[in-house]
Amino acid sequence: MQVKINDSWKNILQPEFEKPYFENLTSFVKSEYSKHTCYPKGTDVFAAFDFCDLNNLKVVILGQDPYHGVGQANGLCFSVHDGITHPPSLINIFKEIETDVDIPYPKSGDLSRWAKQGVLLLNATLTVRAGEAGSHQKQGWEQFTDAVIQKISEEKNDVVFLLWGGFAKKKVKLIDDKKHHILTSGHPSPLSANRGYWFGNKHFSKTNNFLKDVGLAAIQW
User: Fold this and answer.
1) Handedness of CA 78, 93, 202, 104 (dihedral sign)
2) Which residues are catalytic?
3) In 3-state terms, what secondary structure has residue 17?
């Protein structure tokens, strides 16, 4: 099956596209999009890869599921299109950036500006049915995105992995911590953040300090 994806990713991911599970996943997703309203729009499903060239990859942020509200999901985890009200987790991300690296809270919730600098904003599941969180889980997306994380670990060096919350932390086993830098904390959702598991993690300054240490340009958060 041919998947339209950024050329830099094709070589390492093509074997996944040819596996039976991915064929089944494709059939499932096509069926869901034909029968139900699903997010993100079809052309944005692989946006995380389109905006972040593998050769430029420096940071991986892992989300779980796309937003399932009208107009929210744009194919980048935690990100929303311009003009869309910022969801609670994104608000808390921006608040932490504000205190950590002294960048004013932005108007735009579109994080493609990060992706273009080498931040892969990857959800574990890349599609969802409108209004039904988790509705496309356990259909094959997780197998695919686990393979993506493993391939990055194998092919790259000195990538910063930001794993927020219990779900993301389980991905540690896919990453070679001798080659890469892993930062973990609670999830930025209000449930976790309000209990003291998110604010003050300083992941954004720590990421930039590590990138500078290995001779790479810092991310303009």
Assistant:
1) positive
2) 65
3) helix
